[in-house]
Amino acid sequence: MLTSLLVVGVLIVIIPLYIWWKRMPYAHIPGVTQLGPFLPIKLPLVNKYMGGGAESPALEQLFRSGFVKDGVLRITACGVSRLFISDPDLIKDIALTRAKLFPKPPVYDILNIWGENIVSTNDSAWKKHRVVADPAFAENHMNYLVKESAKCINLSINRMEKSRSAFGLVINATEEMQDVTLDIIGKVAFGYDLGVFAPKDPVQPHKMTFENALKLTMTLGILVGGVLPKWARRFFPQTDIALNETELYMRELIKYRMDNLYDTGKHDLLSLLVSSNAEQIKETSLTDQELVSDVFIFLVAGHETSATTLSWMLYELMLNKHVQDKMYEEVKTVLSGLKFDELTVDTYEKLTYTKCAVTETLRKHPPVSGVPKMTRTDTTIGKYLVPKNTEIYLDVAQVQKNEKYWPDAKTFKPERFDPESSEYHKVKSCSFLPFSLGQRKCIGSKFSEIETAILIAYIVLNYEINNPKGDVYMNSKEVLQGDIRTESRITQSPLGLRVELKKRQA
Predict the structure, then answer these.
(1) Could you give the angle at the alpha carbon of 145 between the alpha carbons of 142 and 146, nearest 5°?
(2) Which residues cross the membrane (predicted)?
C-alpha cells in the first residue's frame, strides 16, 4: 500500500514537471497548457487541468483563436504543443511563400490504408501523384460531372417523393445528401452504379455490395484500417470485410480500365486516371497499389466534402428565405426546359448567385476546421521562434468567421462574393481557404463546387425548403453556438438535420 502511494506521489510530481519541460521551447508563444488530452466528458475538480468536456480551457481558447493577438495560439496538451494560425498574412507565408518549409505532418498517415497517396505524401513523391492526377481533373472533363449530378439528384427526388405523407415531405437532409453524393461519386469517379437508388445484392466472389463496403470503410474503416495494425482488424469483423471488399472492388475496376485502355467513350475519373498513368514513364508512373490509394482518397474527399456543404446549404436556405427566393429565380431562368444531356459547365457558370451561395456556405461552414502542417526546421512564424517538427494548423474556421476580415461574418450573405453586388466584399488574401491554399490546395475543389451547385440548383428548382413544424432552429447567426449538433467524420457535418420540402407549383 505504501509503495503504491509512493508511486502515485512520484507520478503526481514527475508528470507536471515533464509537461512543463516539454512546454519550455514554446513558453514565449501565447496560449494555454493542460495536463491531459481533450476528453468527451467534464471531470469534477480536475477539469481545468485535464481538459474534459466543452468547458476545457484549451477548447475555449481555440474557439476564440481568431481574435488572439498576432494570430498565433499555442495549445499544449499531454506535453505536446501545437500552434493554431489565424492571421491571413501568416497563413500566406506558411501555405504559399515558404510552403516547402511546412510539409504535411504524420497525422495524415491515417489515410494510408492502402499506401501513400496524393494527400499524405510530400515533395517528389507528391509530385508524382499530382502529375498523374492533374489531367483527370481538367475542367474540360467536368461536363460529364454536370450531367451525372443532375441525373442523380433526379433519382434522389423520385425516391424522396415515395416517402411523402399526408403531412408533407420531411427528410433527413444529412443522410439524403450523403446518399446522392455517394451515387454521383460512384458513377463519375468509377463509372459504376453503386446501387444507392436501386439496391442490389453482392455478386460472387464478393461478400458485400460496393455501396455497403464503402459506407463502412469511410466511417469506422478509416480508423480501423488507418490506425490499428492489420492483426487487430479481427476484433472488427464487419469493418475488416468492408476494407477487404473495398480494395477488391477498386482493384477489379482498375484492371478493367487497364484492359480497355483505349475505350475513348469512358469519361469517369478512374478511366482518365489510368489513361494518364499509362502515358507516364516508369519512374513517374504510379503502381497499382498507389492507384488504389489515390482513388480511395478522391472518393472519400469528394463524397464527404460535397455532402457536408449541401447539408449546410439546406440549413442556411431554410433559415434565409430571401436567399432561397433569389436563387430560385436564377435557377428557374437557367435550368427550366433543359434536358440533363444538354447541361454543360457553361450551364454551371450561368448560375452566378448559386455559385456565390455555395462559396458563402464554404466560408461559414468549412468542410474542415483546420489544415495540418509541420515545421521542417527551426523557423519563425510571425515574431515567434518555432522548433523543428512542431504541428501547426491553419485555422480555417476562425479566420473565415473573423469580423476583421469578414464584416457581419455571422450572417449568411452570398452577395459578399458577387462583384456586381453592392454587398460585394473584396476578400483579403488568404482569409478564405476551405480547400487549403497553394500547390497543396485540394485537387478536387472545382469538382466539389460544380457538383454542389448543380445539386442544390435542382433541389431549389423543385422545392421550397422549410423548417419542419416542431423543429426549432435558432437564427443562422448562432449555428456554431449550439443550435444544431455536428458530427465529426472526415468533415464537420450537421447531425440529423431535418428539412421540409414543399413541392413548387409548375
Answers:
(1) 90
(2) 5-21
Does pLDDT of 391 surpass 60?
yes
HSE (side-chain half, CA atoms, 13 Å) at 131: 15
E strand or H helix at 148: helix 142-162
6 contacts: CB under 8 Å, gap ≥ 6? none
The Cα 46–Cα 64 span in angstroms is 22
CA distance 448 to 490: 15
Same domain membership, residue 81 and residue 127: no
Give the per-residue SS3 of 228-267.
Answer: CCHHHHHHCHHHHHHHHHHHHHHHHHHHHHHHCCCCCCCC
Range of the domain at 23: 2-85
Could you report how far apart the first and last alpha carbons of the chain are, in Å? 81
CA distance linking residue 263 with residue 243, whole number of Å: 29
Render pLDDT for 165-175 as a digit per residue (tens, 0 to 9): 878 899 999 99
Do the Cβ atoms of 247 and 114 come closer than 8 Å?
A: yes
C-alpha cell at 108: 495524415
* C-beta separation of 82 from 34 below 8 A: no
List the CATH number of the domain containing 227.
Answer: 1.10.630.10
Statement: residue 181 has pLDDT above 80 = yes
Query: Is 442 one of the annotated binding-site residues?
Result: yes
What is the dihedral sign for C-alpha 355, 488, 190, 195?
Answer: negative
Burial class (CB in 10 A: 0-12, 13-18, 19+), 487: middle
Specify whether 319 is located in the same domain as 199.
yes
Within 336-375, residue ranges assigned H as helices are: 345-350, 352-364
Which of 62, 85, 108 is where one domain is finished?
85
To the question of pTM greater than 0.70 for the whole model, the response is yes
Q: pLDDT digit string (tens) for 465-500?
A: 998 875 555 444 333 334 566 665 566 778 778 999
Split into its structural domains, the chain has a count of 2
